[in-house]
Each structure stands twice: as C-alpha cells, then as structure tokens.
C-alpha cells in the first residue's frame, strides 16, 4: 500500500518475528530472523508472479477491446460520410428549389405590383368621383373610427388634386382641400385629447399619420403648449424648465419619429417666451432706477441661464447643440450685455464716491484740493530740502484719513465687479473691461483715498523746529502698508486671471507699478520729514534740559547723578519712536528707517557734545550719558548705529584720560582710523586743554 517505505517494512517484519528484537526480554536470534526473511522473500516472489500473470491477462483483454473499438469507429466514419453526401445532395436540391421559388416570386411580384397599383388607383378614382359628385358615401369617410385610413386617402387625393388644372377642377380641388383641413383638425384634436389622457400609444399613432400632413408642425406646437401647462407654478422658473425638459426628454422619443427636433423646439419656446419674459420683468424694473440691483439681477439671471444651458447639453438636440443654446441665451441678454460695462463703470464710480464721501462726512472733514503746480510745487521742494516753515502745517488731530472699512468696501465692490465682468463680458472684450474696472479701483482707492491721506499727512507734518509736535505720519505709513497688501492681493486673485493671456497684462502691471512708485515717493518724503521732526524734538529736549554746569560742576567731589536729566528724556523719547517705527513698518523697511534715524541721532549727540567744556568729573558724566545713549542705540538692532555710538563712547574717553596716556588712547583699536582733527576737537573740549602739559602731550 502507498506510501510504501522499504526500511519501515523490513523493520516491522523484524519486530514481528520471535527473536528478531529485544521485546519482552527475549534474546536476539539471527537464524530465526534469517529464516523468516527467506520465507518472506519466497512469499513475495510467489505473489509477484501471480500479479504479473494477472497484469498480462488484463493487457491482452485491453488490446482486444481496443481493436474492436477501432473497428467500430471506422464503421461509424463510413456511415457519417454516406450521410454527409446525402446532406450535400439535399442542400443542392433545396437551393435549386429556392432559386425557382424566388424567380417565381419575382414574376408574381412583377404581375402583382401593377395590379395593386391599379387597384389602388381604382380606389382613389372611386373616392375622387365621390368628391366630384359632391356626396361622400364611402364608409371610410363616414366612420369616425376609420380616421387613419381616411387620412391616408385624403392625403393622396390632395397630392393628386394639386396636379390638376384649376379651371376644370377648381370645385373638386376645394372640396378635397376642405376635407384635408377637416381631417387634419380632427387628428390634431385627437392628439390633444390623447395627450390630456396620457395615452402615449394613441399619441404615437396620430403623430405618425400627421407626419405627412402640412399641419404636423401644428401638432408639435400643441404638444409643446400642453407640456408647459402647470409646469411653471413655482418661483424658480429655471428649475421648473429643467424638470420639464427632463420629463419631456423621456417621453418624446416614444411619440415622435424626430424627438430631437421636438425637444429643441420646446427648449426654444421656453427660452423665447418664458425665460425672456421673466428676465425682462426682473431687469427692466431696476434698469434705470437702481443700478446695483440691476447688475446683481443681471449677473444672477445670466448665471442661472447658463447653468440651465449646461443641464440641457445632456439631451440630444441635434448636431450643434452648443451653438443652438448659445444663440438662445444671446437673444435673451444681447440688449443688456451690449452696454453692460458702461453700467458697471457708472455704478462703480457713483458707489465709490458715496463710500468715500460717507467716510469723510463721518469725520466731519471737508476734502481739500491738493495744490499743484507753480508756487505750491516750489514751496514743497524748498520745504523738503531746507525744512523751513514755508506755511502753516495742517493739524489733523491725529486722524490718518485712512480707513480699512472704506478699503474693504471698495475692494468688495471691485471684486463683485470683476466677477460680473468675467461672466457677462464677451471673451474678446474681457481684458479691456477688466482694465477699466481696475482703473476705477486705482482712481478711488489709490488716488482719492490713499494718495489724499498721504498728501494730508505730509501737510500735517510740522516743521523740524516745532516744539512738542505730534507725529502721526507713521500711523499713515502703517495703514497705507496694510492697504497695499490688500490691494495687491486683489490684483493677483481677481484681476490677473482675467488679463493673464492678453496685451492688457503689461498695461495693468505698468499702471500698478506707477501708482506704487508714486506712493513710495510720498511715503519716503513723509518718513524723512518725520525723522527730521524727531531730531528736532530731541534738540528741543537737549536745549531745555542740558545745562553747562552738567559737565563742569562747581563741586567736583559732590556729583551724585549717574547721567544727566537731558540724557534720560532723550533716551525715553528715542525708545518710543523706535517702537513706533517697528509697529508701523515691516520687512527691510524697518531696518532702513531705523538706520537713518540712528545715524541722525548719532550726529545730533555728537554735535551736541561739541558745544560744552568738560572738567574731569564732567567728562565722566559725559561718558555715562554716551553709555546710556549707546544702550538706547542697541534697541535699534542695527550694527552701524551701535558701531557709531561705540566710537563716540571711545572719543569721550579723551575727556578724562590722563595727559600722559592720550597718545596711547588715540592709537587704540576704535580711534586709530579716525581723522586726527576729530580727535583733536574732542581733546580741545577739556578745561585743562590750555595747559602746556596737555597741549605738549597731544601734539
């Protein structure tokens, strides 16, 4: 038995043989095991011979049966060949008979067709005679249930009557035409009744009969009219139209042989009647009285109409349905789209003017005209270069005349205008129209609002020698910077997609660049004058608070202060201005302005220190003041400014150093590269400079 393993078989045989193993304490007996193996081999040989004889017998039997089966197959093949020959003979005979039958059928048809035509002509002549006699007796004309047969006959008679001469057959022709018209009306009435009953199969039959009549188009009109009965009961005419067309699209193919034409005619009727009337009612109401509502309605109606058109594109409307639907939309809106951009620009202008005026009214501010040309320009240039008070400054009372609410409103109006422009403009006019809207934004946001605020802010900057001047121009800078970010975002998000592939792109970019450069010039001018005012305020503080005795005290041994009161107030003022600059600007502008302020601050302190004479203790106090100024300069976080004050601090050491060490200090790291005249000027400030010893050591 499978699986057979020889080693296991021998092992089992050895264990079963007494003395073949060590089971039960028996001793191993090799002779008995050998004898058992010999006997078992003989048994296996006998078994093998028996099985071999059985196999040979089965093989012989199998060969015999194979021969018998092969003989039987050969006999079946012969029988099959005979049957196949019989089938071929039968097929040839059938083909011969079929050919004869077809020939006979052709002959019969050749005889029957003229006969049928003759019979048909005879019937038509019979019916024609009834019209000649003026009395219709045939059942086909009197029985209302045979209207289909009557329609077929009258349609043929109508065609024949058209070929007859009018003078001889005028009366019969009029009778046939009258009957033709009556049957046509009956069929249309039957179609109408079937439609009201919802009998699709009857509608299909009648429509098939009417297909050959002139009134078939009237049948279609009736179907379209009845389809719309009760279909427009809700407020949303566009949704009603979409639902109606979906319902008719499923039904029209079961009724008419040309469903795409019927559906297209239904859609045309909806657009030219329902939608055009609805659009006119919605737009004409506000066209002259309310431009805002008119534009909103125009955008909404046009959008909903194009969305409806997109839904209708799913239906089979013929070959060029895109052009068909586009023409329908254009027919509705053409009178409104022709002058759309003029209405848009007019509305934007009036709306923007109103937004700005409402803001200035809320501030009780009357916009002043900004003087230009001639003397005004000359005064402005002189004031920029000399900081001379060439006229009284305008007191703005801290008002920047910039409003984020105004800006957001203007940008929102412009955003909506861009959206309407994208939807309502012809593709060829889109870049041009978008540029006009952008020009409106530049005029009212940049020129009328930002530029006016900058001009007012510039006029409000006091002269540099004014005392206790309030500086609000940095607030203008801060708000203008925020507004520019919003302006730039709208430019990129809403204008760029409309002009990106047109020549107007370069024109818009140039216009934007020009307006920004114009604003930057005024911002730079205002910041420069503001910095001058800051320095002027510091001068006033120093002039008012700094005393000559600060640096040349009467009692050198009784100086209790660490730094002067003037230094404290100046540092406090500077720190406030630095913080204000950081809050008003961003990016590299902060560092640029702070560096300019720091350089001017250093120059002021340098020139201020040159005005006094210093005793030894006074020189120490000056060093303490400069150390405090240097600490203040660290708030600028500008390396150049800190370096300038480090050098100034080193120069102040010349005020207190012993005469013998002057040369060593002057050749130190921080002072070695300075001009000798500068070093000399500081040494001259010492009260002991006139002593021969000091002059000798420094020379």
From TrEMBL:
One annotated Gene Ontology cellular component of this protein: exocyst
All residue ranges annotated as the Exocyst complex component Sec10-like alpha-helical bundle domain in the record: 149-698
An annotated GO BP: exocytosis
Species this protein is from: Erythrocercus mccallii
Keyword Transport: yes
Protein family (similarity comment): Belongs to the SEC10 family.
Protein name: Exocyst complex component 5
Keywords on record: Coiled coil, Exocytosis, Transport
């Amino acid at each position: 038995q499978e699986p057979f393993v020889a080693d296991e078989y021998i092992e089992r045989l050895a264990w079963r043989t007494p003395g073949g193993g060590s089971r039960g304490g028996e001793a191993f007996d090799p002779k008995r095991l050998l004898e058992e193996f010999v006997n078992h081999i003989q048994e296996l040989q006998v078994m093998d011979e028996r099985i071999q004889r059985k196999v040979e017998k089965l093989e012989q039997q199998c060969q015999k049966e194979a021969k018998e089966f092969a003989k039987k197959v050969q006999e079946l093949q012969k029988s099959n060949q005979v049957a196949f020959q019989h089938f071929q003979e039968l097929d040839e005979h059938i083909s011969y008979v079929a050919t004869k039958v077809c020939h006979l059928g052709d002959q019969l048809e050749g005889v029957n067709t003229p006969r049928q035509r003759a019979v048909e002509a005879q019937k038509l002549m019979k019916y024609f005679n009834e019209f000649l006699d003026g009395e219709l007796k045939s059942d086909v004309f009197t029985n209302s249930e045979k209207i289909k047969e009557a329609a077929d006959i009258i349609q043929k008679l109508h065609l024949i009557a058209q070929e007859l001469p009018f003078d001889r057959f005028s009366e019969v022709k009029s009778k046939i035409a009258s009957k033709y018209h009556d049957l046509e009306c009956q069929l249309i009435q039957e179609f109408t009744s079937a439609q009201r009953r919802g009998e699709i199969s009857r509608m299909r039959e009648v429509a098939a009969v009417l297909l050959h009549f002139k009134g078939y188009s009237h049948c279609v009109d009736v179907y379209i009219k009845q389809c719309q009965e009760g279909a427009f009961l809700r407020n949303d005419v566009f949704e009603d139209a979409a639902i109606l067309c979906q319902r008719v699209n499923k039904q029209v193919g079961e009724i008419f042989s040309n469903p795409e034409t019927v559906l297209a005619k239904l859609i045309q009727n909806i657009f030219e009647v329902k939608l055009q009337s609805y659009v006119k009612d919605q737009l004409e109401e506000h066209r002259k009285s309310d431009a805002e509502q008119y534009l909103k309605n125009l955008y909404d109606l046009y959008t909903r109409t194009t969305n409806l058109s997109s839904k209708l594109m799913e239906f089979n409307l013929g070959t060029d349905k895109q052009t068909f639907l586009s023409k329908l939309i254009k027919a509705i809106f053409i009178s409104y789209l022709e002058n759309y951009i003029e209405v848009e620009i007019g509305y934007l202008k009036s709306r923007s003017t109103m937004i700005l005026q409402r803001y200035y009214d809320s501030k009780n501010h009357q916009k002043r005209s900004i003087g230009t040309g001639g003397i005004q320009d000359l005064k402005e240039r002189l004031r920029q270069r000399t900081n001379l008070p060439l006229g009284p400054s305008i007191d703005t009372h801290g008002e920047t005349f910039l409003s984020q609410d105004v800006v957001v409103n203007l940008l929102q109006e412009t955003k909506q205008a861009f959206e309407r422009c994208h939807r309502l403009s012809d593709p060829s006019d889109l870049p041009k129209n978008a540029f006009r809207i952008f020009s409106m934004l530049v005029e009212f946001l940049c020129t009328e609002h930002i530029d006016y605020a900058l001009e007012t802010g510039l006029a409000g900057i006091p002269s540099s020698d004014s005392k206790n001047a309030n500086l609000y121009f940095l607030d203008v800078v801060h708000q203008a910077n925020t507004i520019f970010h919003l302006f730039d975002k709208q430019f990129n998000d809403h204008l760029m997609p409309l002009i990106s592939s047109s020549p107007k792109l370069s024109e818009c970019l140039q216009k934007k660049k020009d307006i920004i450069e114009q604003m930057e010039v005024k911002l730079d001018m205002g910041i420069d004058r503001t910095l001058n005012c800051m320095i002027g305020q510091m001068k006033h503080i120093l002039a008012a608070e700094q005393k000559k005795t600060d640096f040349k005290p009467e009692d050198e041994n009784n100086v209790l202060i660490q730094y002067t009161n003037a230094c404290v107030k100046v540092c406090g003022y500077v720190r406030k201005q630095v913080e204000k600059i950081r809050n008003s600007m961003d990016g590299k502008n902060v560092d640029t302005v702070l560096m300019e302020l720091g350089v001017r601050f250093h120059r002021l302190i340098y020139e201020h220190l040159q005005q006094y004479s210093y005793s030894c203790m006074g020189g120490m106090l000056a060093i303490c003041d400069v150390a405090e100024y240097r600490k203040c300069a660290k708030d600028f976080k500008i390396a150049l400014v800190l370096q300038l004050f480090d050098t100034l601090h080193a120069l102040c050491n010349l005020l207190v150093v012993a005469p013998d060490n002057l040369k060593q200090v002057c050749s130190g790291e921080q002072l070695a590269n300075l001009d000798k005249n500068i070093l000399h000027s500081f040494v001259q400030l010492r009260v002991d400079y006139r002593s021969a010893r000091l002059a000798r050591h420094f020379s």
